Amino acid sequence: MPSILLTWYNTASQLFWYRPIFMLELLAAEALFCLRIKRKTYFPLRLAIAVIFCFRFSFLVPIVSYDAFYNALMFFAMFAVTIPFMKFCFNESWKGILFCAFAGYGVQHVAFQTYDILSLAFHFNPSASVYVSNGTLTFLDNAATFTTFVGCHLFLYFFMYLIFGTRISKNMLLDLKNITLLVVVIIISLSNIVLSSIVTYTCYDPYNRDALMMLAFYNIFCSCLTMYIQFKLLRFRNLERDLDVEKRLRRVEEEQYALSQENVRLINMKCHDLKHQIRAIGKNVLDGEVLEEIENAVSIYDSTFKTGNDALDIILTEKSLLCMAQGIRLTCASNTIPLRFMKDSDVYNLFGNAIDNAMRAVSALEEGKRAISISVKQKGSMTSVDIRNWFEGELSFKDDGLPCSTRESDGYHGFGMISMREIVERYSGEFVVSTEGNVFSVDMLFFSS
Fold first, then answer.
1. pLDDT, position 29
2. Of 265, 269, 315, 416, whose CB is crowded by the most CB atoms within 10 A?
3. Cα–Cα distance for residue pair 94/2, rounded to 1 Å
């Protein structure tokens, strides 16, 4: 039994000492894709337990044989043990955990194969592979090989994080719907592990430097390809999720438009009748001053906007009542019957989202700054819409030109501005958001025949 253990745990083998180094490389690579996903409670304690166990496992897994298939199985076992511990530390679905794990393995493989290419190109002891030779690890022999090994990993880990890791936003749910493509990625990765091991052992007996370099380039290509597929899959899923949310919001907005249209019609009709009834009974019951006060109160609901566009009149009337209740002054100036080329539901949604955003911005300001101004002007075939309001604080803008949200995300917030831009672009218009001083501006320009 002791002789078997000495064979399994041969400290003279490079492969024996490379196992914990491989585990360190792998955990660091997987961490690149887990930095922004949701963590479980007591995360530091969970992480410490996971790291200790994974390193312990890397020392305990035996080297039963030095053939290609067992070598591939051993590295896969060390990789596989990290997956449940990622689930132990992070509040993510199993599909999301597999996504991060295989992306991390891809990064580790690219970095190690890049070192292999450099070591073969510059003849860093070419006959001493960690897979087939004994003695100390070759990349610890001197400062040049050690610097190259560490430099390759640090540079490529950072580079891969910038390209792929930054695509995972904070607390993003990696709920990948298309499981088929993820399975394809997993199969390609596992096949790459096995084939790489087989070819590596074949090329060292006899030694074939050119074949090893071609293998390293092939491995880098396969790893980069699988990561590209993974993150394209993630991108498509996020776009699909955003589209689903926007469709639901559009349906709600269209239902709200129909309801508002009917409500405004009924309010106007009832208030008109009520004014006549007040006049009829006022002569016998109320004095003139009280009667005038009641008529003024009712007239608030009868003072609708008259722009000539029914949908715009409805949304302005509806929002003006809300503004009046909050002490916000809403004005709209137009030199024509505006936006006749747009669908009523689009007009309603466009101005509804814009006024809602402006109301949130001015509601906490002092009385003199609680104002929202809307200007719709037409000159020839061009129609401009300018919406302005005061705001306080600092606003930052995303790469797409839209402002970053100042509210806590609820899964739906932030789509209002996206929906506005989508409506404008649907009519081949231009949509620009800007700030000047403490004035927030939304400018839209349409070209219509």
1. 93
2. 315
3. 40
> Residue 305, Cα to own-chain centre: how many angstroms?
40
Strand partners, 434: 441
So what's the pLDDT on residue 279?
Answer: 59
Q: Is the peptide bond before 44 cis (omega within 30 degrees of 0)?
A: no
pLDDT of residue 411: 39
CB atoms within 10 A of CB 11: 8
What is the DSSP track for 191-237? HHHHHHHHHHHHHBTTB-HHHHHHHHHHHHHHHHHHHHHHHHHHHHH
Q: Would you tell me the crossing angle of helices 179-203 and 68-89 to the nearest 10 degrees? A: 140
**270, part of any domain:** no
- Which region, left, alpha or beta, applies to residue 175 given φ > 0 means left and ψ of -120 to 50 means alpha? beta
Looking at the structure of the chain, the number of domains it has is: 2
- Beta carbons within 8 Å of 99's beta carbon, 6+ residues apart: 33, 174, 176, 182, 230, 234
Q: Output the six-digit token pair for 71.
A: 């070598």
Where does 145-190 show beta strands of DSSP type E?
A: none
Q: Which pLDDT value is given to residue 1? A: 44
279 within some domain:
no
Is residue 315 domain-shared with residue 400, that is, in the same domain?
Answer: yes
Q: Look at the pTM and tell me if it is higher than 0.70.
A: no
* Cβ atoms of 61 and 144 closer than 8 Å: no
The DSSP element (H or E) to which 87 belongs, if any, is helix 68-89
**Mean pLDDT in each 10-residue stretch from start to end of the chain (449 residues)?**
60 79 92 87 92 91 79 87 92 85 90 86 63 63 81 91 82 65 74 74 71 83 85 75 61 58 61 60 57 56 66 79 82 80 82 88 85 88 89 77 61 61 85 86 83
**Is the separation of the CB atoms in 104 and 188 below 8 Å?**
no
Give phi and psi for 209, each to the nearest 5. -65, -45
Q: What's the alpha-carbon Rg for the chain, to the nearest Å?
A: 33
Is beta strand 439-447 parallel, antiparallel or unpaired with respect to 430-436? antiparallel
Q: Please identify, among 196, 212, 240, the residue that sits at the C-terminal boundary of a domain.
A: 240
- Token pair 């995303």 is found at 398
pLDDT value for 395: 76
Domain boundary residue among 224, 240, 256? Answer: 240
Closest CA to 319 of 347, 293, 341: 347
CATH number at residue 368: 3.30.565.10
